[in-house]
Amino acid sequence: MLQASDITYTYNGGLKLVFPNISCPTGQHWLLLGQSGSGKTTLLHLLAGLRTPTTGSVSIGGTDISKLRASRLDKFRGKNIGIVFQEPHFMRALNVEENLALTQSLSGQKVDKKKIHTLLDRLNIAHKLKSDTSALSQGEKQRVAIARALINDPVLILADEPTSALDDKNTREVISLLEEQATAAGATLLVVTHDNRLREQFPNQITL
Amino acid sequence: MNLITLSWKNLTSKPWMTLLSVVLFALGVGLISLLFLLEHQLQEKFEKNLAGIDLVVGAKGSPLQLILSSMYHIDAPTGNISLKEAKPFLNPKHPLIAKAVPLSMGDSYRAYRIIGTTHDFVDLYEAEIASGKIWEQNFEVTIGHGVALDLGLKIGDKFSSSHGLMDDDDFAHDDAESFVVVGILEPSGSVIDQLILCTPQSFWLVHDHEEEAPAGEHDHDSHAEGAHPTSSIPHPASLLKEDPNKQITALLLKFKGKSYQALNMQRNINENTEMQAATPAIEITRLFNLMDAGEQALRILAMVIIFVSGLSVFISLYSSLRDRRYELALMRVSGATPAQLFLLIIMEGLILAIVGWTVGMVLSHGGMQIFAGVMKTSYRYAFSGLQFLPREWYLLFGALAIGFVAAVIPAIQASRTDISETLAEGK
Q: Which of A157, B60, B139, B400 has its CA 20 to 30 A from that of A54?
């Protein structure tokens, strides 16, 4: 499903990172552990097609995304990859529902309000449908961010340090939400973190 | 949730910045549009009222004043001329003159001017009778559409005239015979809509009558009147048969053709008589040239405002880019292409331009409508704020072009957002 072979990335400054090969079968949940500065975020961006690897290739569901160019890669990412970031950010001018609707339409899909409502309901924040995103609590923001990552039924969910700002209770909640939703959607989940609290929850681990 | 909606939401989420840009756009566009409207409608009015008149003859004074008073009825007459001097032009056998229309002016009714003239005056403006008939006898009046509408005059109504051109009861000819409305003209869009028409003899009778009375003496300088009292004639005779010592105010002349002699007539009159002659076309061109300088200045001012509005759009979009970098990166993550981000920002510039143009149009046409009310009370000229000109569409394209140009640099910046770096910065 997610396959990264022989990828390296060279920064403008000349610093070269070599990454281990990754192979995550469909529907499995993986943890990618690495200390700060080990290039975790860079690797996540490479896997999401936000950066192009200097050498090697990344393939998702059989598509070699390092060979996709420009706008086709953008559309592929919008449709197939959901990303949850460490800090949940949203379009400030839009409310919760509109943020999700925008994510739907940018990936080239029709806006499906019913689907948005169902998803928010599943994440227990349906009552925040019309709220400004700035009015949400940290936990609520993280849920909306997860909803945004899931709304287009991606085959791959990437989570970048989703728990580093959360306490133990919220960490457990967010991780189980991610795992539940990924399982429900049949998507492959890869959590990138330096958070050792997550070690026990993921049998499949890669260490940088 | 398409890009236009998103652009709109982005703009409304920072209302003060948006308001500033819109107000500046609206001021610039509104000012230019108002100038268009004024220029167009003034020109239209002046040209329509030229009515094919080649030469205006009246008392010595400013030629522009003579034209304005006797053709546009917006200034005081330069004075009177004696019928003796005017008679040669009134002769129907005059070899060069196709039509000569005498005008007696100086009186009014509730600020609408009363003009003593012949039926040729109606033909000059191609006006038609809407109801009643044309004036025949002394003290019968046929009134323009605008007069009837504004004063609510109907056929059979009577009124006394007032001395002078202002609405002033102190100068009413109280003891003069009452004028009676016998006809109302169709609306023609020319100055005749705002006039009250009667025989030239009526004028003399009003003032003769007054002179017999001991009180109520006024300065009669610019007044059509006779030296000797004349008895009231039921059917007034042609002016040619009237006492040559009587006075009229001006003559409107139409030539048979533009011959050499006709062109010389103006100089002859100015050099050899107590009268002056002025060419409407020349005087009006002079007037427009005078106005043009002021208009030019206003137009430059409008351009500067529009330029500043473009600058404000640019600054507002450019400065917001820094705050929006993360949002733009998020959009890319969700599948937006660089071209879509470019469009998003361009759209914001265009929306500002369209809203600004719309508000500007409302301002200029609303302003014109208010101005029309003022012009109507002070000059009896009907302007309209409801007229739309094709030029105003060009103004929309101009506004769109400025909105586009102002947005293009921020839009290029937006489309070049480095997603990975922006996201890694975490802000």
A: A157
Q: Is residue A148 part of a domain?
A: yes
> CB under 8 Å to B142, separation ≥6 — which residues?
B122, B129, B132, B133, B134, B135, B181, B182, B183, B184, B185, B197, B198
pLDDT in tens, A93-147: 999 999 999 999 999 889 999 999 999 998 889 999 999 999 998 888 988 999 9
Half-sphere exposure of residue B43: CA atoms within 13 angstroms, side-chain side: 11
User: Which of A86, A91, A104 is opposite residue B327, by nearest beta carbon?
Assistant: A91
Contact B335 A86 (CB under 8 A): no
For residue A192, is it within any domain?
Answer: yes
Q: What digits encode the pLDDT tens for the residues A59-82? A: 998 889 988 887 889 999 999 999
Provide, as residue numbers in chain B, all residues whose Cβ is less than 8 Å from the Cβ of A87. Answer: 426
Chain A positions touching B419 (Cβ under 8 A) are 45, 50
Residue A90 is part of which domain span? 25-51+70-207
A93 and B6 within 8 Å at the Cβ level: the answer is yes
Rounded to whole angstroms, the Cα distance separating B209 from B402 reads 68
Distance CA(B380)–CA(B74), nearest Å, equals 8
CATH number at residue A29: 3.40.50.300
Read off the DSSP letter of residue A37. T
Q: Which of A102, A157, A164 would you mutate first to test chain B, the one with the most B CBs within 10 A?
A: A102
CB atoms within 10 A of CB A11: 11
Instruction: Give tens-digit pLDDT for B286-330.
Output: 888 888 888 899 889 988 998 999 999 999 999 988 888 999 999
Nearest chain B Cα distance for residue A188, angstroms: 18
Q: Which residues contact B411 (CB under 8 A, 6 or more apart)?
A: B317, B341, B342, B343, B344, B345, B346, B349
Beta bridge mates, A189: A29, A157
Inter-chain CB proximity B1 and A93 less than 8 Å = no
Based on the structure, what is the number of domains in chain A?
A: 1
Burial-class residue B325 by CB neighbours within 10 Å (0-12, 13-18, 19+).
Answer: buried
Does B344 lie at the interface with A, CB-CB under 8 angstroms? no
Chain B residue numbers with beta carbons less than 8 Å from the beta carbon of A50 are: 332-333, 419-420, 423
Between residues 297 and 336 of chain B, which touch chain A (CB distance below 8 Å)? 326-327, 330-336
* Inside any domain, residue A5: no
* Minimal Cβ distance to A106: which of B331, B420, B424: B331
Q: Which residue has the tokens 């975790």?
A: A40
Contact status of A83 with chain B (Cβ, < 8 Å): yes
ipTM: 0.91
**Mean of pLDDT over chain B:** 85
CB A43 within 8 A of CB A192: yes
